[in-house]
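Let's do one together. I've listed all components of the complex below, 1086 residues spread over two lines.
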Amino acid sequence: MTEMMKPLALAVALACAGQAAAECTGAVTIGEGVEQIVTLIDNRAVGGRCMNALIVDTVAEGANYESHRDFVREVRELTGKWRNRGLISRGERRELLSAAENSSVGHTVTVRLIGFNDFHGTLLSPGTFGVNLNVPPAQRPAVGGAEFIAGHVDKLKAQNPLNMVVGAGDFIGASPLISALFSEEPTVEVMNRIGLEFNAVGNHEFDKGAAELLRLQKGGCKAGDPNSCQGAAVGTPVPFEGAKFKWLSANVVSTATGKTLLPAYGIKRFGGVKVAVIGMTLKDTPTIVTPSGVAGLQFKDEADTVNALIPALRRQGVKAIVVLVHQGGFQSAGISDINGCDGNLAGSAIQQIVSRLDDKVDAVISGHTHAAYNCKLPNASGRMIPVTSASAFGRVLTALDLVIDTKSRDVRTASANNVLVDRTDAGVTPNAAVKAIVDGYGGLVSPIANQVIGSITRDIPNTAIDNACNMPAGDLIADAQFGATTAAGFGDAVLALMNRGGVRNPGLTFAARVGEGDGNVTYGEAFTLQPFGNSLVTMTLTRQDIKNVLEEQFAGCRGQSATTTRIMLPSAGFSYAWDGGKPCDQRISNVKLTVNGLTSTLVDAAGVVIDPLQTLRVTVNNFMATGGDGFSTFLNGTNLLGGAQDIDALVAYMSAYAAPNAPYDPDNPALSKPRITRINAPAGSTTCPGGANVNP
Amino acid sequence: MLMSAAVRAAATLLCLAAIAAGAAQAASPADQRLKRLLERANTPGSNETTPPETRLRLLAAGEAALARRDAGEAAQQFERAGMVRHEADAELGLIRAYMQAGEYRRALAFASHTAGAHPQSGAGSALYAWLLHIGGQARIAAQLLDNARARLPDDALLQATASLINAPLSAPAAGLLVPPARFAPYTTPPLLPQTAAVIASGVLIDSGRGVLTSAAALGDAREVWVRSGLGQTVGATWLRNVDDTGLAQLRLSDAISMPSLPALAARDPFPGSPAFAVEFPAIAGAVPGWPLLRVGFLGKPAGVAGAYHLGVAMPPANRGGPVFDASGRLIGIAVTNAVSGDRLILASKLRKAVAEYPHDGAQLAPAARMPVDEIYEHALKITVQVIVSR
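Okay, and this is what the predicted structure of the assembly comes out as:
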């Protein structure tokens, strides 16, 4: 048994043992069915549990050993412990070991393939779906959605740790905006996290051509597409990480090289057993895809391709072989149960392909028609093999269980079951990480992102433009926040202060980014500038508070971090000077405030606060209002009034600079710049301080 | 005489083959149909195991159910047709069945597939583009339509859709109201007179028993009806004008089914915040349709209490439609007048002025953002056409 399986087997054993503990009857048996061995040893409690339950030897108990030897080893260890504790005699141990050695337990291993097809980028639930058409619409559960697919896959995996997640093509293309707008990168990223391992190409994988498919496989951004590589906004790597799973294209050959475009098959090893999946699309793909999508490619016959690969797989010791093919059929008119096979897909393309498959193929997971079925169809030798399809859009998953002889490494039996991806299944936990990615792309797809909110005459950087620490983007934001809170009832503010750490890269750029036109600023850009979703808070502070909070900007002063200097950006009408050569609480001077054309001096040139108890209304963001960035003085604020979100304030402010109005000019004299002046700086100083050195 | 199944099948095939062979001499419609069936059965790669006649019957039954506004039954029939063969016609039916049921998001997602999977179907791309357009994704809709028209330059449906999108004051008509790509819900009686016209939009209130709409638009109307985005049509009577809002309150002859509203904003929104305004175009002829959502940012206070400049660019119309914030909360109703232009009457004012205006469901800001297609889905169910005959 693998290390992975031991916890499961133990858990099952404990659960079973717990149930049987009250009554341990009969004799200890090893194995099950006709091959069960009945010993002469009484089934009795061992440490509160029954021996029969503690020996994990049946499927129901979770037995799935990779070899018979593994099982015997388990029994040897277990009985050794019992013997050491005096729970069984030496003879009893010998008999149990003998029964284990003579049993058939571990002669087979069950590997589960979890398959689906025709996902078509359906990251959000496609609605309700019933197991068949007889289920009244009102009783059909909501299905699908990437986070629930992940949850159901996890559930199916938990039932058998020896598993492989596979697809039968069309996972991308013909997809909703949430995937299509971002060149299908969201679907690939989500599939990576669902744990998809191998996926046949379908016709829609070629919608944008082979080169684009290869990019999705290998990763990297799509040249010239501003919507590519949005990972920073959704929590995935940048550049785009590419598929962690392998797309397979056994029957798609490059005419230039004669080689398959992508690998023909994938092999996964389970202990001593190898399982191969051969992946391919329908040979008629060129007839249903735009010619440019399949230029330079040849699509070969499906069955011939599979049969030709069998010898190579056998040479690698692979005896368990499953075909993933993007071709399918329909059940005949009936109730179309997801586990039905009305009409046995007679006359369909998939039936004809299967009828020509080599007998060494053990099962087929198909797709393309969006139908669900669970069939057994005759192969070229007349042997019936499972042929499945799991509807489309992530509504259904197929669990295909292969019982493999651990000695011959070939499949003894194969059985399949289609299950709904039921969002109401209380036993399934939706995957939060997957949901976060989907939600992230859901936000990006909003039409609001590319709305133009105003325009600018040149770049508005988020960096200091002088050694006093003036910053154009910070000035703009402070002015916007002041504008949003100055009116009666909105705060009555006379001043706004913005923390420079809240002004994010790259500021606002003049050059167009998503085709909005040079100079135009989109809501998306504004959101990048202020991504934190802070809201505005207007509070009453005294003039002394204002002096103190300005002194608090410098490293080591008034509780500010000893290693960080944080110069805030004030709104127009407010100005002050600072001298980094002086000690704490003596650096700020010449604080002036102009309101309605009248200028008041709050702090004189000597640093003395004039009328220190006089109050004024000041706007900051809620992060600062709660003492963020070390500005604990703001905690003195009274009469707090919550306001708009910071980005709303910026949008409202920029609306005055939207066409047909003149664009925002950061050099406009009316903006009263510079607002911060540095005095007595060292000769040659050009640096705005940000660290422990307040006077660089 | 008893015959085994295998023998019977062989005899049938022989019979069909004989008919096929003699088709050139005896080409009756029945013979031709049999020949097609035989060819299909013998064609490698055919995925169809059910006779095409069955499929056509299913499509017809689906359309008939849709015309009865039985969206569930229609979806069932179209779904069955889709399980016979993966084709655009059944999918177009399904999309419209979802829209008839008010499931915009489901319709939109499925339409994306139909447009992508059946690129030779102009109807698929046309319907997808229209659904994107009405849901606020105008730029992407236009791009999709351009691509489809480049692919199918002679497709009349695509051309009509492009014309419609480029004419913001018009609504689907003629060819765009005919299945399989009908751009509108099916409606209930009463049949409206020829003189009826859509003059404004309105918002359902009072559990669907009342509507708020533009007071000025009603003017001297002799008769008034309202029709929901799902096609339900009922008569209406003027109840009163609402204070200084520019809105009138209507009482409906029968309640229009409406869902509970998404959560209401605890306080009024701020200028600059995203706004999603929804309304029907004003048109002569009173044809049914789906409302359009437009995106913008709320303007500044309008100088009167409880009103902002709308801040969402809209073509000239009488307004009356709902406006939502980025969390999908109903923040008020759009109105207009010649002097002050488009304004938003804020929910806080409406709550005071209209007892039936929704009061509950308060939610603290800031809330998570709601996807725009979900906002549209809510709007579809509470926005009505206000139709008058003068």
